Amino acid sequence: MLAPGMRRTAQRTMVYNAIVSLGGHCTADEIAEELHKSKPGFPRSTVYRALEALTASGSVYAAHLGEGATYYELATGDHHHAVCQVCGGVLHIQEELVSALEAHLEEGHHFKPVRTEVLVVGICDSCSRTPGRRAERRRTIDPHFHFTEGAG
Predict the structure, then answer these.
(1) Which of 34, 81, 105, 115 could form a disulfide with 111 if both were Cys (CB 3.0 to 4.6 A apart)?
(2) At residue 130, does pLDDT exceed 70?
(3) Number of structural domains the chain divides into
(4) Could you tell me which residues come within 8 angstroms of residue 150 by beta carbon, excluding any fewer than 6 positions away?
(5) Looking at the predicted structure, is the pLDDT value of residue 149 above 50?
C-alpha cells in the first residue's frame, strides 16, 4: 500500500503495482519492462522518479544486494537478506535474529546500534547441488522459509 500522506499519482501507482506484479526484488529496468507491456511509451525516467518518491515515503524498500543494480520490494518492516552469489536468489532473515545480534552487541560489547543492515552472501542449496546454474532474475528462495535461531 502506498504510504499515508504520499501524493498518489497514476505513475507512482503503476510503478508500485509493477513491483507487486513482479513479486519484489526487481530492478528499475525490470519494472520499466513490466510497465512497457501495458504502456509501451512509459518513460524510464518516470520509473526512476516514482521509485525515488516511493522509497522516500517508505512505501518501497531499496535493497542493495551485493554488486550491481538496486532491487526494490514492498516495505513491510526491516529487511535483512541472504543472497546466493550464483543465482542471485534472496532469503529474508527474520528480524528476531537481527534483534538478538543487536542485543549481543549492546550487552556484550557496550555498543549501541543505531541502524542495522544485514547482507549475507553465500551459495544456496540448489546452486551447491547444481554448479553453473544461473537464474534470469533474482528470486525469493522459498518465501515460506526464514532463518531462525538454531537453524543451520
Answers:
(1) 105
(2) yes
(3) 2
(4) none
(5) no
Give the residue-averaged pLDDT of 26-43: 93
Q: Is the pTM of this model over 0.90?
A: no
Spatial contact of 27 and 70, defined as CB atoms under 8 Å apart: yes
The phi, psi pair for 22, rounded to 5°, reads: -80, -10
- Separation between Cα atoms, residue 136 and residue 88, nearest integer Å: 9
On the question of pLDDT at 138 being above 70, the answer is: no
Phi, psi of 40 (to 5 degrees): -55, -30
- C-alpha dihedral over 139, 46, 53, 32, to 10 degrees? -10
Which pairs from 36-39 meet CB under 8 Å and 24+ separation? 39/14
| Domain CATH for 107 | 3.30.1490.190
For CA atoms 103, 109, 115, 121, give the dihedral sign.
Answer: negative
Residue tagged 507491456 (cell numbers): 37
Which of 45, 54, 68, 44 has its CA nearest to residue 121?
A: 68
